[in-house]
Amino acid sequence: MRGKRRAPRPRIPWxxxxxxxxCLASVLATGAIAVLGGMAKDVVLIxxxxxxxxxxxxxxxxxxxxxxxxxFGDGDLVRxxxxxxxxxxxxxxxxxxxxxxxxxDGRTSHxxxxxxxxxxxxxxxxxxxxxxxxxxPRYEPVPLSGMALTIYTRRKVVIVADGSRREVKTTxxxxxxxxxxxxxxxxxxxxxxxxxxxxxxxxTVITVLPPRTEPVQPAVMxxxxxxxxxxxSGGDPTAYNSSGPYYGLYQFSLPMWQLVGGAGMPHxxxxxxxxxxxxxxxxxxxxxxxxxxxxxxxHLFG
Length: 302
Description:
- This protein is of the alpha+beta class.
- Helices cover about 25% and strands about 25% of the residues.
- The protein has helices spanning about 20-40, 60-65, 120-125, 175-180, 220, 225-235, 255-260, 270-285; strands spanning about 40-45, 50-55, 75-80, 90-95, 100-105, 105-115, 130-135, 145-155, 155-160, 165-170, 190-195, 205-210, 240, 245.
- The strands form four sheets. It has a four-stranded mixed beta sheet, with no helix packed on it. Strands 6-5-8-7 form a four-stranded mixed beta sheet, with helices on one face. A four-stranded mixed beta sheet has the order 10-9-12-11, covered by helices on one side.
- The chain is rod-shaped, with a radius of gyration of 43 Å.
């Protein structure tokens, strides 16, 4: 009896002549992937405050930004610099320049900032320490198109009104605002210097003179009032003589000052107001200056 014929054995893949080549190709591919993986860098890219994680094969910061479509130019902040080599784990920040129209106490300038908020813009311009009132909240974003920012700093000014003199701190934009916030009322016709619409810079003396309802005759105005003041007080509007007592340029007594409508203390007022009241006093006594200025009155006639 003849035996059964055996079935042919299946071919063994690894005995194929191509097997070594396939294995070599696999090893090379695996090595290439490992090498390329080692060349890739994981970095953090922050553009105008927006953060993203990026894997890149770029050799420099400039190449990375070009790959990511992030433009930059003069005035923009790139940190680290565009020429810096790209390292794994580095943090790259790009902030584009923004135009800022800055007005501080009435003076306007045009600046470029890379800050993304008003607070950071002030810090960038070394203005963070300024105290005052801003036209925008400090947390407000600064858009790429730019913005206008107005600052009124807290300033010291002097107010002379109602026969008193006081120093106040203010952020007021105009003399009118300063007087209103200080609670200083003034009647129609009052003489206010500087004008109500003027900007009160630091150190400004704001004077509120009462309305001048009684005119001074030209002949009285033409007398030598400066000479009288030099004789009476040495030309010092704040002069005080305790023997009377007498006050100011023309050494008013309080009853005489009040007789011609003077308010408060004579020597608290500027020279202009004191001179006006002295001229009214001369008119009130119909030129009889001897009763008021017995020692110096002759100087009026020079």
